[in-house]
Specification:
The complex is a heterodimer of chains A (659) and B (430). Chain A has 659 residues and is mainly α. Chain A contains 20 helices and six strands. Classes of the chains: A mainly alpha (659), B alpha+beta (430).
Chain lengths: 659, 430
């Protein structure tokens, strides 16, 4: 701050110069120009939310058309080509244009407030992310308005498996729109993710240590890392595909020796972390809402955070479970099968800790809490069907059937969307200073909850009964009629629920009851500021004394005063330089890695005697040592001592004081 | 009865009873109770060892997760009810103790989850190796030996947009046109020996397809530049439904096929008849001339209209067996006319009819098409009406298909009479 203050910043109240560099500095605070040129993280977050909800409605409408076509066998509402376009765009829209940007909306709006910052690290980059996202959304959807024969909307499914996307099988520009659209959305996402990472690392308020970060901020951080690590894979795949289609290269062109299976690997190396990009923000939101409405801290905070990071890591080790039917061979299938099962552990841990949070609390059953509890239930069901898929041979039957469709909708609607809707309700009073009526909020929850389950629960049975997904029609003699009919009725109920939700939101925005700040008796810093938040967020950057900073501020004034006094006293007495204790565990962990590496590289995979397998034994031993080292490292804590350099008796220097 | 099968049935019955009693009267209004999951493509009521091992594994995962769901759900439900604030005063009471967690509880729960996963992991690994390849086969030589002994069978299955070609590498048929021999090939209706492991070499000529016969085995994809395979065994003779399970373009939904598993004698009889060149119906044998087949003119079909009679549904295997014999009221003249049209209208450019001079390879092989129960890749029943529906406008039944494009490219038009003749000819190809 100090270094830059003198040169770049204008004195108070002075406006921007009319013209700086080629184009002018916009000064409009509101109006179209104000919104187009804003760099305020809250306005950008709001716009992200607005666009995301628009596309959520569009994707929902596509879903209703799909369900209408499948309501009865051999239906004729849509042609085959239209149906294929619908499910392609439904998937692409919901993932890239609805759930991801809705997550980004919360990252933008809430995260800086929760860490006590006045904006994100790179405000203009943030605006660039938003508008690039819009560009991608336009490119993806532009085909709807162009002639079908040469253009049309994408219809090669959201996974775009080569070689169906090649010029031979999809000559129209529809696929080019899909490639370019995803590419732009990737640029937007990566730019935004880098911005969030830098913000979280660098812009935390004093005292907001990493282990005091609200869980939502932690999940923002993990998600952002997932984005910058996973998007490059699909960027490469899309560039290769684009070159195949435009410049005659042969990455996926079978006739030129290309390998279509390569597309699947690249796509899912991105695609599986993407799933966690969609769910981790939701978990973060739920981890904020449950403590707030239980009026007690999140149970097992460190382990929830660690589980989130763990899910992020494991997310990169399981992509091939989307490819169990591609003939990978028994060993690869087994490896990915087991790795996938491992993900159930950190996920389960989260659920246990959410329940632990409720335990012994005073649960206030407000609308956000209803959605959050709905999330836990639905996410459990989605998680359990996920475990069923991890058993690869069982998955050979479920893959690409409606069982999978049921599974991922339980995770994405019952999981992500429920949590995002909960988040909208939760932060609505903060963002707009108005509160949604409890009656209408709960009504919309119940309609959505019932509609969702009626739509997607029967799909489990449909899938086990052998109905493949992405089918525009089916015969009446397959035993699928009832489930499809029920499912479609459920979809209409779900649609109605969403409609109620949005009408209520718009009504509340215009005419809802005005409320004061901190309406929920919140625990985190965003509730410490007036609503709607002023453009500078915090008049004074807060000093953080504990996790759940705002709650602590409200309930522990004495302790804070005491802490300050003690701190001052300690500084006075020891006055030394804070130094960390030495630790043996980093060394232990590395030794474990070394042993495991020797096991993997130097030993033969034979059973010497029954029960003695050197390769397996040594590798596993190394692994155990590594994990033990890391675990104990975490447990011993980062304590330290105060060092008094010789000859420096009584003048503690500034750095020592600051820690 | 195996324990898992028993559990399976109990599970289905319980779930259905539970849900129906729970207010599902709506469900009974329709044709079938979908909770029983005994449809044509069920993965639950299986009829072969591969599918059975997959279903058994599914039920292991199902039971384990169900137990956990009930336990965790019970705690969650209890916590929700027990700790709910009853009224406004309760809500604003002093905050509860601000507890932060308990490492022992966490470790216990993690250990419990890992244990549950081990219960799933062990049968998973077993099933992965069991379903991967024919038991006892580790090398190609071993498999050849089994083939020699008649303990196994081999079929090459190839996916096309949007139909299937099945080739029997072990059965050589004479090709009268060239005088040579070529492996027997059929399309869209797969005949396999029951009770013998069958290994499929899965190939594709265009995009990715996925070969799936739910009652017999889970799916394996057909991927360009990749030599995938799958094995399965049908416990007993039967008629099965299969379908492409990987989105493969416009008509993916109607890329279906049928599987007929036959006992040893039936299978050999079928092979013998298939190895023959296409059947000829001499004009003079029908000297009486009375047997004129009567065709109603083609009625209009709705888009996506179902192509099956209910009779076919009741006993498909019997329907298949009937199909093996020539129609009673064949009209030799009409058939001869159809045969001529088959060449004149350039059908021969794409289809093969071995012995009739048709040697095209880009479309389904038709030498014995009359003996199949379905046409158009399992989409339509093989009868006069549906055949004519197909020939009249292939693009309506199967959007985007090459036959419709061929009509346009080659400016092919067919009169009602032409269509009737072609239908008679195709039906005669037993």
């Amino acid at each position: 701050m100090d270094a830059t203050a003198k040169s770049d910043f204008l004195p108070q109240e002075e406006h921007a110069p009319a013209k700086t560099f080629v184009l002018w500095r916009p000064i409009a605070p509101t109006g179209l120009m104000g919104w187009l040129t804003t760099v305020d993280h809250k306005k950008i977050g709001f716009l992200y939310g607005l666009f995301a909800l628009f596309f959520f409605i569009v994707g929902g409408f596509e879903a209703l058309l799909i369900r209408t076509q499948l309501m009865v066998p051999n239906n004729t509402v849509l042609t085959a080509q239209q149906f294929n376009t619908m499910f392609t765009m439904h998937g692409t829209t919901m993932i890239f244009l609805a759930v991801m940007p809705l997550g980004a909306a919360f990252f933008n709006f809430i995260m800086p407030l929760q860490i006590g910052a006045r904006d994100v690290a790179f405000p203009r980059l943030n605006a660039f992310s938003l508008w690039t996202f819009c560009a991608g959304a336009i490119i993806l959807n532009i085909g709807w308005f162009l002639p079908v024969d040469r253009f049309g909307a994408p219809d090669a499914s959201w996974v775009g498996y080569a070689p169906l996307t090649s010029k031979t099988f999809n000559p129209a520009h529809a696929t080019d729109f899909w490639i370019m659209g995803l590419q732009l959305l990737g640029v937007a996402s990566i730019a935004a993710a880098l911005n969030f990472i830098v913000t979280i690392i660098n812009m935390r308020a004093p005292g907001m240590t990493m282990m005091r970060l609200p869980v939502f901020v932690w999940m923002t951080l993990v998600t952002s890392f997932l984005i910058i690590l996973s998007f490059p894979a699909i960027t490469i795949a899309l560039v290769e595909l684009m070159m195949d289609r435009n410049f005659g290269t042969n990455f996926f062109e079978v006739s030129g020796g290309g390998m279509p299976i390569l597309w699947q690997h690249l796509f899912w190396v991105f695609g599986h972390p993407e799933v966690y990009i969609l769910i981790l923000p939701a978990m973060g939101i739920v981890s904020e809402i449950l403590p707030c409405f239980s009026r007690k801290p999140l149970y097992g905070y460190p382990i929830v955070v660690f589980s989130g990071a763990c899910i992020g890591f494991l997310g990169f080790a399981v992509w091939s479970h989307h490819m169990f039917t591609t003939g990978m061979g028994a060993v690869a299938t087994a490896a990915f099968s087991l790795a996938t099962m491992c993900i159930a552990v950190p996920t389960g841990v989260k659920i246990f800790n959410w329940i632990g949070t409720l335990w012994g609390g005073h649960l206030q059953m407000r609308t956000p809490m209803m959605f959050a509890l709905g999330f836990i239930w639905m996410f459990m069901i989605g998680g359990f069907s996920g475990v069923m898929h991890s058993a690869a041979p069982a998955d050979a039957q479920q893959q690409d059937s409606y069982f999978v469709v049921a599974h991922f909708h339980y995770v994405l609607i019952g999981g992500s969307i429920f949590a995002l809707l909960a988040g909208i309700h939760y932060w609505f009073p903060l963002i707009f200073g108005r509160m949604v009526s409890e009656f209408w909020g709960k009504l919309s929850f119940w309609v959505i909850f019932v509609g969702f389950n009626v739509t997607f629960f029967p799909m489990h049975f449909l899938g086990l009964n052998g109905m493949p997904r992405r089918n525009f029609t089916y015969d009446p003699n397959m035993g699928w009629n009832t489930a499809n009919f029920v499912s479609t009725i459920g979809a209409y109920i779900l649609g109605l629920g969403i409609l109620i939700y949005f009408i209520v939101m718009v009504y509340t925005y215009l005419k809802g009851e005005r409320v004061g700040p901190d309406v929920w008796d919140g625990r985190t810093l965003e509730w410490s500021i007036p609503n709607p938040p002023p453009e500078y967020n915090f008049r004074v950057i807060p000093t953080v004394h504990a996790r759940d900073a705002w709650w602590y501020e409200k309930h522990h004034q004495e302790e804070i005063a005491q802490e300050k006094a003690e701190h001052a006293k300690a500084e006075d007495t020891h006055g030394g330089i804070h130094m960390p204790f030495s630790s043996i565990y980093p060394f232990v962990a590395s030794c474990g890695i070394l042993i495991a590496a020797i096991g993997v590289s130097a030993l033969d995979a034979d059973w010497v005697h029954p029960g003695i397998h050197w390769k397996l034994g040594v590798t596993l031993t190394g692994g155990v040592i590594m994990f033990a080292g890391i675990y104990l490292w975490a447990l011993e804590g980062a304590e330290g001592y105060h060092l008094h350099p010789p000859g420096d008796d009584h003048t503690p220097d500034a750095t020592a004081k600051k820690h | 009865m195996r324990l898992t099968t028993l559990l399976t049935k109990l599970f289905c019955l319980n779930v259905s009873a539970f849900l129906i009693l729970g207010g599902g009267s709506l469900l009974r209004a329709s044709d079938a109770n979908f909770f029983v999951m005994d449809g044509r493509q069920t993965t639950i009521f299986t009829e072969g060892p591969v599918a059975r091992s997959q279903t058994d594994l599914f039920f292991v995962t199902c039971w384990v997760t169900l137990v956990i769901f009930i336990l965790v759900g019970a705690v969650l439900a209890y916590a929700t009810v027990k700790f709910k604030a009853r009224n406004a005063a309760d809500e604003h009471a002093e905050p509860p103790p601000q507890s932060h967690g308990n490492p022992l509880v966490e470790i216990g729960l993690i250990a419990g989850s890992v244990l549950a996963l081990v219960i799933i992991a062990i049968p998973t690994l077993k099933a992965i190796w069991f379903t991967y390849d024919v038991p006892g086969v580790e090398t190609r030589a071993q498999f050849e030996e089994m083939l020699q002994k008649g303990e196994a069978y081999e079929v090459n299955a190839t996916g096309y947009q949007w139909w299937w070609r099945f080739e029997y590498p072990g059965e050589l048929a004479t090709v009268p046109e060239s005088g040579g021999k070529a492996p027997l090939a059929t399309a869209n209706e797969l005949i396999i020996p029951a009770g013998r492991p069958v290994r499929f070499n899965l190939r594709t000529t265009d995009v990715i397809h996925s070969f799936w016969i739910p009652k017999l085995a889970g799916k394996v994809d057909m991927i360009p530049n990749r030599a995938n395979f799958l094995w399965l065994k049908a416990d007993h003779p039967g008629y099965y439904w299969g379908q492409c399970a990987e989105y493969c373009g416009d008509s993916h939904a109607v890329m279906r096929f049928r599987i007929v598993a036959l006992g040893p004698k039936d299978f050999n009889d079928w092979l013998d008849s298939q190895l023959q060149p296409a059947r000829n119906v001499p004009v003079k044998t029908a000297a009486t001339g009375g047997a004129k087949a009567q065709f109603a003119s083609l009625r209009a079909f709705r888009q996506n209209e179902s192509g099956f009679s209910s009779r076919f549904d009741v006993a498909p295997l019997e329907a298949w067996k009937e199909k093996q014999f020539p129609e009673k009221n064949e009209d030799p003249e009409l058939i001869a006319k159809g045969k001529a049209l088959f060449t004149a209208k350039t059908c021969v450019g794409c289809h093969t009819v071995r012995g009739h001079g048709a040697q095209g390879v880009t479309a389904p092989e038709l030498t014995h098409v009359g003996a199949r129960t379905t046409i158009a890749a399992g989409l339509l029943e093989n009868n006069h009406e549906q055949l004519q529906r197909w020939i009249h406008n292939p693009g309506a039944a199967k959007p985007g298909n090459k036959m419709a494009k061929g009509y346009l490219d080659n400016k092919i038009t067919l009169t009602d009479a032409d269509e009737a003749a072609l239908v008679a000819y195709i039906e005669s190809l037993k």
